């Protein structure tokens, strides 16, 4: 009498918990790749911003103060700004025109910081705003609430969307402490 091997399914592989976990893993992976392909950024979830500009310009009530990399204020100010851009923030659909951007730089009623980069940079988020920009403008005053607004510019043209940074007070405090 010949024996035939019996086909036995492993209950561990087909248990409802394993099927659920496999479905959950597939769903998370699909979500990750859909957002990554929409934003063209596979690190869209990464909250850290750690870029060094080639120049920083503080626009304070119509006066421009240029801070170059050889300034003793350059590295500390870059560090404070990078910390704030890595903290709580939210992406916003609000944009400004290139003309409004230029007007803000000359405004007698606002304080802003322009960070200029030699190569295009990206701020990682679930939206494609602020990707491949060479200048960031952070408005520190003139806003109606506590969230400072950040705009991006590429080749002199204001890009769509903005980012709102929850705590710009650390940047403002640094500027006051350093008498900038």
Can you walk me through this structure?
The protein is an alpha+beta fold. Helix content is 31%, strand content 27%. It is built from four helices and eight strands. Strands 1, 2, 3, 4, 5, 6, 7 and 8 form an eight-stranded antiparallel sheet that branches. A hairpin with an 8-residue loop joins strand 5 (131-139) and strand 6 (148-154). Helix 2 packs antiparallel against helix 4 (169-177). The chain is elongated. The chain starts with 15 loop residues before the first helix and ends with a helix. The relative contact order is 0.17.
Tell me briefly what this model is.
This protein is an alpha+beta fold.
Task: Please indicate the percent range of residues in DSSP E strands (runs of 2 or more).
Answer: 25-35%
Intertermini distance: 95 Å
| Strand elements, count | 8
- Topology pattern, helix = H, strand = E: HEEHEHEEEEEH
Over the alpha carbons, how many angstroms does the gyration radius reach?
Answer: 24 Å
Q: How are the elements arranged and paired?
A:
Layout: H1 16-39, E1 55-60, E2 63-67, H2 74-86, E3 89-92, H3 98-106, E4 111-122, E5 131-139, E6 148-154, E7 157-158, E8 162-165, H4 169-177
Antiparallel strand pairs: 1-2, 1-4, 3-8, 4-5, 5-6, 6-7, 6-8
């Amino acid at each position: 009498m010949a024996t035939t091997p019996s086909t036995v399914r492993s209950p561990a592989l087909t248990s409802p918990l394993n099927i659920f976990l496999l479905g959950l893993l597939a769903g998370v992976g699909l979500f990750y790749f859909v957002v990554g392909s929409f934003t063209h950024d596979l690190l869209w979830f990464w909250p850290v911003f750690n870029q060094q500009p080639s120049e920083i310009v503080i626009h304070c009530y119509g006066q421009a103060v240029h801070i170059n990399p050889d300034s003793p204020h350059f590295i500390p100010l870059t560090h404070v700004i990078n910390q704030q851009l890595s903290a709580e923030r939210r992406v916003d659909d609000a944009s400004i025109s290139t003309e409004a951007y230029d007007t803000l730089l000359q405004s007698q009623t606002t304080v802003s910081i322009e960070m200029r980069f030699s190569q295009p940079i990206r701020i990682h988020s679930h939206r494609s705003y602020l990707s491949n920009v060479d200048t960031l403008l952070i408005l520190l005053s003139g806003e109606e609430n506590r969230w400072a607004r950040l705009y991006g510019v590429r080749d002199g043209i204001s890009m769509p969307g903005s980012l709102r940074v929850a705590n710009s007070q650390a940047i403002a405090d640094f500027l006051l402490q350093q008498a900038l």
